[in-house]
Amino acid sequence: MTEDKPIAKPIAKPIIDDATREKMALMFSGEVYLPDDVDGFFDLQAAQRDLQLELNATPLTNPKRRTELMQVFFGAAGEGLYLECPVYANWGCNTYWGERCYANFNLTLVDDGEIFIGSHTMIGPNVTLVATGHPVRPDLRYQGAQYSLPVHIGENVWIGANVTVLPGATIGDNAVIGANSLVTKDIPANTVAYGSPCKVIREINERDDVYYWRDRQFSERFKVKEQ
Fold first, then answer.
1. What is the mean pLDDT of the chain?
2. Per-residue pLDDT for 205 more than 50?
């Protein structure tokens, strides 16, 4: 006799509808605000956190459920999105994923503001994408004041382990961000950048067609074919 598997409860309709987003408009304005200025801020956030909790507890052996939860939790979850849970987000609904993205363990999304992640982007473990900050002024921080500026990650970007990206930064298509970097400003497309603060070290070039790690060359299978 086999035990019946428990029936998964239906996922609620997303609470972040157009009307709710109008209430949240101040969060995306770039201006300083207090959380209490947003009607229902904490109740809305709590509902999103419940989805996050369920997503992180859903096993890999239930990919259908994981996909359903990601599609409800995030603002957009492109086809083929794969997350190594746990993933943590202030909201989730303000993060937008393209197709075929991958993120390793312990991704943190400080997404009171919007975070856009382009298709085919890979994110290493323990990465933090921060769209939200607090004023330096002590009296405003005492009140819990904050502001948000969008973070844009291009397509086919590789972000190494333990990287932090700060509010307002854009990382261009195909860029590689080295491990432990602190990205404080825009990084152009097709570059390799690292450091704290993160700086462009070089452009992706013809040597990268031949070598994949230091002096290690690609095997015949992966060599660039001459036209």
1. 92
2. yes
CA gap 166, 131 in Å, rounded: 6
180's tokens: 């432990």
| C-alpha distance across the termini of the chain, in Å | 62
Cα separation values, 147 from 43, 152, 213, Å: 20, 16, 40
Question: pLDDT per residue over 185-202, tens digit each?
Answer: 999 999 999 999 999 999
Q: Are strands 76-77 and 95-97 parallel, antiparallel or unpaired?
A: parallel
Of 36, 63, 79, 134, the catalytic one is: 134
Query: Within 10 A of 44 (CB to CB), how many other CB atoms are there?
Result: 18
Side chain identity at residue 1, one-letter code: M
Active site residue 134: yes
- Helices 63-73 & 41-57 angle (0-180, nearest 10): 160
Residues paired with residue 158 on neighbouring β-strands, in sequence order: 122, 176
Amino acid at 134: H
E strand or H helix that includes residue 17: none
pLDDT band with cut points at 50, 70 and 90 for residue 40: confident
